[in-house]
From TrEMBL:
<dbReference type="InterPro" id="IPR009057">
    <property type="entry name" value="Homeodomain-like_sf"/>
</dbReference>
<dbReference type="InterPro" id="IPR023772">
    <property type="entry name" value="DNA-bd_HTH_TetR-type_CS"/>
</dbReference>
<feature type="domain" description="HTH tetR-type">
    <location>
        <begin position="2"/>
        <end position="62"/>
    </location>
</feature>
<dbReference type="InterPro" id="IPR001647">
    <property type="entry name" value="HTH_TetR"/>
</dbReference>
<dbReference type="GO" id="GO:0000976">
    <property type="term" value="F:transcription cis-regulatory region binding"/>
</dbReference>
<dbReference type="InterPro" id="IPR004111">
    <property type="entry name" value="Repressor_TetR_C"/>
</dbReference>
<dbReference type="GO" id="GO:0045892">
    <property type="term" value="P:negative regulation of DNA-templated transcription"/>
</dbReference>
<keyword id="KW-0805">Transcription regulation</keyword>
<dbReference type="InterPro" id="IPR036271">
    <property type="entry name" value="Tet_transcr_reg_TetR-rel_C_sf"/>
</dbReference>
<keyword id="KW-0804">Transcription</keyword>
<dbReference type="Pfam" id="PF00440">
    <property type="entry name" value="TetR_N"/>
</dbReference>
<dbReference type="GO" id="GO:0046677">
    <property type="term" value="P:response to antibiotic"/>
</dbReference>
<keyword id="KW-0678">Repressor</keyword>
<dbReference type="InterPro" id="IPR050109">
    <property type="entry name" value="HTH-type_TetR-like_transc_reg"/>
</dbReference>
<dbReference type="Pfam" id="PF02909">
    <property type="entry name" value="TetR_C_1"/>
</dbReference>
<dbReference type="InterPro" id="IPR003012">
    <property type="entry name" value="Tet_transcr_reg_TetR"/>
</dbReference>
<dbReference type="GO" id="GO:0003700">
    <property type="term" value="F:DNA-binding transcription factor activity"/>
</dbReference>
Length: 233
């Protein structure tokens, strides 16, 4: 069988989706493809290099949804928010995706799209250096949120969680906490026993991510506004 990097990456991702990251080995990947393990080393030196390519594939999968530039007339902040929401949706659709992406090093295949993203932010008035810092910080925020979500989903539910959530709504004992929970639930938040969608659409988890993301974007916009004012006449 003729092998190429794309086939190896797609097969590795499928095996991870089926059995988790810990189950993936180069020997297992070779067996799935009907070849001997040494054949893989023509493409990847080790498992970490393979996972870097898988992470790049996940990013490309997300970018195919939202693109690397805003639509005509679309503000950059609305576009980058959608980019990150699409990224979260993509990561949540694959098992252990946060662990795959955490600590990965970008491959040369990722550089054209990365440059296009920074160019789009720069065209909106974000200095290139700050555009890079923002995308790195937002990427860390994204991965942290996905890792928390996937780690929680891997745990068996416990009676303690349900009891804790019940106590959080006890207005006599915890008045401010109960008021906060009530407010979030009224706006679409869900309790620990609710079935949240794989895409993270709705629910407290989604609300937390969107809130934090909004703060990051608003903060960058405010920073740019202050810089304009400071450089004015």
């Amino acid at each position: 069988m003729a092998l190429d990097r794309e086939t190896l990456v797609r097969t590795a991702l499928r095996l991870i989706d089926e059995g988790g990251l810990d189950s993936l080995t180069l020997r297992k990947l070779a067996a799935e493809l009907g070849v001997q393990a040494p054949a893989l080393y023509w493409h990847f030196k080790n498992k970490r290099e393979l996972l870097d390519a898988v992470a790049t594939h996940l990013v490309a999968e997300q970018r195919s949804t939202s693109g690397t530039a805003p639509d005509d007339g679309q503000p950059w902040w609305e576009w980058i928010e959608q980019r990150l929401l699409d990224g979260r949706r993509t990561l949540l659709s694959h098992r252990d995706s946060a662990l795959i992406a955490a600590g990965n090093r970008p491959t040369p295949d990722a550089l054209p799209a990365s440059d296009a993203t920074l160019s789009s932010l720069a065209a909106g008035g974000v200095p290139p250096g700050e555009a890079l810092l923002f995308t790195l910080a937002a990427g860390n925020y994204l991965l942290g949120g996905v890792l928390e979500r996937q780690s929680a989903e891997a745990r068996e539910p416990t009676d303690t969680e349900t009891e804790t959530f019940r106590l959080m709504q006890d207005a006599e004992r915890y008045p401010t906490l109960a008021a906060a929970v009530a407010e979030l639930l009224a706006n679409g938040g869900r309790g620990p026993d609710s079935a949240d969608s794989p895409e993270g659409a709705g629910g407290l988890d989604d609300a937390v991510f969107r809130f934090g993301l909004g703060l990051m974007i608003d903060g960058l916009r405010a920073r740019l506004t202050r810089a304009d004012q400071d450089s004015g006449p």
